[in-house]
Amino acid sequence: ERVGVRSEFINGLRVTSPEALDGVVKVLAGTVNHNLLAALYTAGVPAVGISGIDGGCLLAKRLRGANGEDWGYVGRITRAKPRVWEALLAGGLLPVMAPIAIGEDGQIYNINADQAAVACAAHWHAESLIFLTDVDGVHDLKGKIVPRLTAEEIPLLLRSGVVTGGMLAKLHAVEEALAAGIPKIVIRNGHSDGALEMVWDGTAKGTAPGTVIVSSLAAAKKI
Hints:
By secondary structure, this protein is an alpha/beta fold.
């Protein structure tokens, strides 16, 4: 808004013009990333800010929709190269990655943060992936939070039209995560007190806010 760039979204993804890309890089790799680093330092966590461009951590191609949708300089991740992450983790440092990537031709791409997280989690064969967002979870047709979802139920929910905007993009990322073999994905409101603890200590069960997505009904019964 400050530089006169109008925000436009298609299927929950931000259309990124050259002007918008400049803002994305400055804000995500600059202001947002360093505010997170400062908060982590205050909490006693040694962290280092990087982006998908550093060391070619995230490689991408320009994203094109199945129906010809064009998001501008928005990328689809083609490969993750974790050498930088591994070096930081080996040194006891937490990498905090801004979701921008690099093309083989040197073009910078804006990447949906959920899809960037999926690429990282898939590389590490993660046991779970947690999305912290600004809503309490996935809503059903009645507006209620769905506490548990399976991979089989997601397409029906998407076809119902109840899922829109950012949650639409998030559920597509969830499908990618499940396809990559990540067995459990949690969507939770990051503004809630103890949002992460509720996932890690097992209190995410039952009626606690949030949605847990797993690969199958059998897996859901174990939650």
